[in-house]
Amino acid sequence: MIVAGIDVGGKNLHIVIKKDGQILGKAAGPTGIKKAEAVEQLYDEVLKKVGLTRRDMGRVMATGSSAKRVAFANGSIPDVTADARGVYKLVPSARMVIDVGAEEGRAIKVGPEGKVLDFAINDKCAAVQAPLSRRYLGP
Q: Residues with Cβ < 8 Å from 1, sequence gap 6 or more?
């Protein structure tokens, strides 16, 4: 089965197309203001690059802060879950994931089977935080 994974973040967009576990093609680009249009354009580009059409796809899954902008996706995976699964696949012994994105940062505690045990996400973009000198940092 041919599948695609699409990560639509606040700043960047990543697409991977796989068949039977092997990467057929991948692409990355800026998300921009018009996220849905950026997804459509990059997806068509990577499909063309590997000689496929949308009809060839068995499943398309999206993740990222703007995953809902992928109108043609079959479903979406929460960012925290995607982070945990991805790191577990690459480094099965990892028990902590730190993901610093354009809009938020998160720390994720991962169990031995790659499942999310706990996580914390900051509530504001770092770009709009008050300067350190004006924030209370504790004793």
A: 19, 20, 58, 59
Asked if 108 contacts 84 with a C-beta cutoff of 8 angstroms, the reply is yes
Q: How far apart are CA 68 and CA 72, in angstroms?
A: 10
Domain ranges in the chain with CATH number 3.30.420.40: 2-76
Q: What span, in angstroms and rounded, lies between the C-alpha atoms of 62 and 72?
A: 9
* Class for the domain spanning 2-76: alpha beta
Return the closest-CA partner of residue 35 out of 81, 73, 82, 75: 73
Which DSSP letter does residue 98 get?
Answer: E
Q: What is the pLDDT of residue 134?
A: 43
Q: What is the pLDDT of residues 83-132, one digit of tens each?
A: 999 999 999 999 999 988 777 788 999 999 999 999 988 866 655 554 44
Q: Which residues contact 133 (CB under 8 A, 6 or more apart)?
A: none
